[in-house]
Amino acid sequence: MSEEHYLELCEKPVQFENASSVNNVFFDEANKQVFAVRSGGATGVVVKGPDDKSSVAFRMDDKGEVKCIKFSIGNKILAVQRTPKSVDFINFIPDYPHMEFTQECKTKNASVLGFCWTNWNEIVFITDQGIEFYQVFPDKRSLKLLKSQSINVNWYQYCPETAVILLSTTVQGNVLQPFAFRNGTMSKMSKFEIELPVVPKPAKLSLSERDIAMATIYGQLYVMYLKHHSRTANSPSAEVVLYHLPREGTCKKTHVLKLNTTGKFALNVADNLVVVHHQSSQTSLIFDIKLKEPDGAVNTHQPVLPARSIHPYRIPLTGPAVVASQPPVPSQLYSSSWSVFQPDIIISANEGYLWYLQVRLPPAVNLLQDKGKLMDFLLRRRDCKMVILSVCSQILDDGEKGSLPVVATVFDKLNQVYKDYLEAEQSYTVAMESGPSRGSAAQKRPVRTQAVIDQSDMYTHVLSSFTERKVVSHKFIIAVLMEYIRSLNQFQITVQHYLYELVIKTLVQHNLFYMLHQFLQYHVLSDSKPLACLLLSLESTYPPAHQLSLDMLKRLSTANDEIVEVLLSKQQVLAALRFIRSVGSHDNVSARKFLDAARQTGDQMLFYTVFRSFQQRNQRMRGSPAFNPGEHCEEHVTHFKQLFGEQSLMKPSTV
Fold first, then answer.
1. Given phi > 0 = left and psi -120 to 50 = alpha, else beta, which region is 131?
2. Domain Mic1: where (predicted)?
């Protein structure tokens, strides 16, 4: 069962003083920092972040109970709320005055519900009567109101990734008004209504802050609504409703995630998957909104995998009393003291830990039987490459039980992603070469994700070892290799020669020369110089390979030099001479190379013919049959004289 935990808590959590030893613990979603606040005399604050740079400890005057505390981006300015009317500020910028300064909210009789930093020096106060957007001047220890908006507010949520604040308005709280912040500007987005469950009159439901979360999924901002069942509804189970919130345009309900159970839930987003934690069963579900083709305005989704618990996490014991042999203590998963934050954060205040939730892909391989669906799921995950390659190996190792159509589907899915990346890379290269065009945004270089499985990956990790397996029939091996080549061709991806070489070696290994001949004759294997050289090396095993190689080189009009080398190495000097004449290269080739080859044959008449041929060339080109000193043919002239006498040398033409 342990192999089936497809969710885990990160190995190195952020550790902080637990709730039993401090007065209050706060979490800042923007900086991913935990504030442990201890008051009494002076207020001691220990801030722990994802790394040492974002961790800091300090003391400040005790001016009352801390209701909210957050650093601006980069730990430059600290904001602390102690009263319903104002927020205090302390500079943490070196060489700036460290004294506190205060800003009261502008709206009369309003209470500050909280605040959000949208930049290192820009902050938003959210009150029960609206929002106030300020710029902070740390050197002057003052704030300037940039913009405000009056609206009755029940509660709010903030998404730091997109700098969008969501306000709950109206009596039932289900009309949500978003505001977006960017570079000192505040813009009002389209408000929308959350559909609450129907309940018998006179009862009325209101929207709870606990049932709403905002997160970015596949680059788009969504508002996630945890819709609990109503006793009167036909469907008694809870569901998560996703509302797509674009920067411009209306917010629309786009996805419904079926939970098929009831109870207490919490939401996270990890690796673009919506994770739903269920407290009573101590399990979690994951949903992938892209795994199903859109079939309407609202798409209904079932969990991708069966419900499983998060992988057990053990807390190592620390302190002077700890004995080396003492085992780590298991963390209490799905505890009622857990707090869940977006996108992927779980905090246990009792234990003093902040974890990042992570997706483990290997367990999904065995839980998702449909290999096509599994591949769609894996291709969208962050660290997918080695898992995908192992799945490919596993499918091939399972043998021939009707798996070729499955293999074809998997190859096509991989090569679609591969092709998309190659096209994006090509269009980027073209754009860079043509230079920036007026009015168009600068094109970004496409990011090569782990989902791009290229030919070298497949060759190295899957196909080369697969062809060496003794338990699989050679027919299946060749069918798989040809299926991969077919898929590459279908997506118009140039097949690398080493894949063809793998096919040829496999055919030769099993003495399937007739099939090799057919593949070459019908151009199933594309012509290339490395392939032609491989064929040449097979001549001793399969003599026709020599001619097949020459034919291939001839078709490659750029391979003339290789053909000459091949023929000369086989002592087919006259054939080489005829070939260079046929392609019009006779005037440019090295005479010495041909004379060397002719002399090595030991055939005197062949040497005579080749020597005379080049003398005639010299006469025609230069008016004299003699060789130039630069041609280094002196020893061959001497050899010719020794064999045939000086009188046999061609005389210069007097014409």
1. beta
2. 381-628
530, 543 contact by CB (below 8 A):
no
Residue 149 φ then ψ, to 5°: -145, 125
The predicted-structure confidence for 637-652, as pLDDT tens digits, reads as follows 899 988 888 888 888 7
Count CB atoms within 10 A of the CB of residue 262: 13
Which are the contacts of 260, defined by CB distance < 8 A and separation ≥ 6?
237, 302, 303
Reduce the DSSP state of residue 158 to 3 states and report it.
Answer: strand
φ/ψ of residue 102, rounded to 5:
-125, 145
Short-list 230, 252, 255, CA closest to 240: 255
End-to-end CA distance of the chain: 97
Three-state secondary-structure class, residue 77: strand
Give the separation between CA 157 and CA 481, rounded to whole angstroms: 53
Write the single-letter amino acid at 401. Answer: K
What token pair was written down for 6? 């497809």
Q: How far apart are CA 300 and CA 237, in angstroms?
A: 14
Across residues 98-113, what is the average pLDDT?
89
CB 31, CB 49: distance < 8 Å: yes
130 in Cβ contact with 151 (< 8 Å) = yes
Helices and strands per DSSP (H, E), number in the chain: 16, 32
3-state secondary structure 551-584: HHHHHCCCCHHHHHHHHHHCCCHHHHHHHHHHCC
Q: pTM higher than 0.70, yes or no?
A: yes
For residue 239, the one-letter residue type is: E
Place of tokens 């030991």: 602
Nearest CA to 96 out of 142, 35, 45 is that of 142
Please, what sign has the CA dihedral across residues 51, 52, 54, 57?
A: positive
pLDDT tens-place string over residues 245-297 = 998 889 999 999 999 888 889 999 999 999 999 998 999 999 999 988 777 77
Three-point CA angle 255, 416, 452, nearest 5°: 95
Of 155-164, 198-207, 486-495, 548-557, minimum mean pLDDT range: 198-207
Task: Give the span between the Cα atoms of 343 and 213, in whole angstroms.
Answer: 9
Q: What is the pLDDT of residue 100?
A: 86
How far apart are the C-alpha atoms of 306 and 194, rounded to whole Å? 29
Q: Work out the number of other CB atoms within 10 angstroms of the CB of residue 23.
A: 14
What is the pLDDT, as a whole number, of residue 321?
47
AA letter at 550: L
609: helix, strand or coil: helix
Residue 538 burial (CB count, 10 A): 20
Give the pLDDT of residue 88: 93
Task: Tell me the one-letter amino acid at 5.
Answer: H
Cβ within 8 Å of residue 463, ≥6 positions away: 480, 481, 484, 499, 502
The pLDDT of residue 320 is above 60: no
Distance set, CA 562 to CA 161, 565, 577 (Å): 59, 5, 13
Q: What is the pLDDT of residues 594-637, one digit of tens each?
A: 999 999 988 989 899 999 999 988 888 888 888 888 888 899 98
Given this model, what pLDDT does residue 10 score?
84
- Answer whether residue 19 shows pLDDT above 70: no
C-beta atoms surrounding 17 within 10 Å: 17
